[in-house]
What does this fold into?
Amino acid sequence: MTERRTLVAIPAWNEERSIASVIERVREHRPEADILVVSDGSTDRTAEYARAAGATVAVLPFNVGVGGAMRTAFLYAARGEYQALVQVDADGQHEPAELDALIDGLDAADIVVGNRFHPGSTYVVHGPRRWAMTLLSAALSRMAHSPIQDTTSGFRSAGPRAISLFAVEYPAEYLGDTVGSLTIAIRHGLVVREAPVTMYFREHGRPSKNALWSALYLGRATLALVVTLLQRGKRPARADLA
It folds into this structure.
């Protein structure tokens, strides 16, 4: 187990009801980690409550989505020379007690994705979303020459090489923060692994995806992967990515 200077990045859009609780739980399990909340165009008191809970807060003037918020977080991590970054949702669905598994997994990988579909998990997805996840899993696993079962999980960690890459090249489009970022990482030769995690229901509010969005999920997810694969990759800005 390697000691790493760690940043926990929490993208948040109007999560004033849960953000303080999430920060408190992260502090409980990783008190030595720094916490950055990226308030993604929030119109409520998310930023205020996050600061009061002891987190550093980056305020984006308008909503750019999770990909754009995480691009900000990776740039912050690169400039701060962090050796690990862990993405945690602001809505309380991720279990901070499992931060250790994601961070320790960086001993053997550049990115560790939290897998919600391990044996014993109660997390279930049906219909178009499940079809999309199965298709994307097959495609990305083949690219990586290693099984990646949960391609759309937002609970994941990144080591130094991934931080350096994503500070320069991180997709902000739909599914860019999950499928797109994994595609870019694999293209640059980074090692991707998974660790079993638990997913809870949201603590407050409602999920952003309605029934129509779920119906479109399969086509849009597949398109996101195709577009990313067709894009011409930028050269890494850091020599250690070669």
Notes: The CA atoms of residues 95 and 198 lie 6 Å apart. Residues 203-211, 232-239 have pLDDT under 50 and may be disordered. Residues 211-230 form the longest helix (20 residues). The chain has one domain: 6-237.
